[in-house]
Design a protein that fits this description.
This protein has helices at residues 15-26, 50-53, 72-86, 127-136, 148-151, 154-157, and strands spanning 2-10, 32-37, 41-43, 59-68, 100-106, 111-112, 117-118, 141-142, 146-147, 160-162. It has 165 residues and is of the alpha+beta class. It has a single domain (2-162), classed as 7,8-Dihydro-6-hydroxymethylpterin-pyrophosphokinase HPPK (Alpha-Beta Plaits). The strands form three sheets. Strands 1, 2, 3, 4, 5 and 10 form a six-stranded antiparallel beta sheet that branches. The protein has a two-stranded antiparallel ribbon with strand order 6-7. β6 (111-112) and β7 form a beta hairpin. α1 (15-26) runs antiparallel to α3. The longest helix has 15 residues, at 72-86. The termini are far apart.
Amino acid sequence: MTVAYVALGSNLENPIQQVQRAMLSLANIPRTQVLKTSSLYQTAPIGYAEDVLTLIPDFINAVAAIETALEPVALLAALLAIEDTAGRQRPYSNAPRVLDCDLLIYGNIELNSPQLTLPHPRMHERGFVLLPLFEIAPHLSLAKYGKIALLMNDHLLTGVKKLNA
């Protein structure tokens, strides 16, 4: 069994409910169990042109720690199936989405393939990933980048707000 971390996010079709359903769906992945889930975080959209930014709804984000006997690519396939079940569409890169499930970390494995890069190549730049990850795994260290506690800064955390649920 390997411990892995999964980021969940949504900004369409009742995002809170989408992320909560996805957390429950993780427990239905074969040979996998959920160890811990973070709180929900509301995140202002990033990476969009200024003229459309006000049209993009905020995201709801969370991170889950799981333990799995699946290999990384099989786990990724299970996560993509959860997205598909939720109705995920990919009209363009970084499009608003019903559900996004990203495999962040899979044990200590470093992988760079056309299907999957581990650890996730941009998670160290994303406050909406680092903050919920820190909540459930405060002593975690990211390959190449160090302890997540040292990666978090005001710039990355701007626009990220923990929800009271």
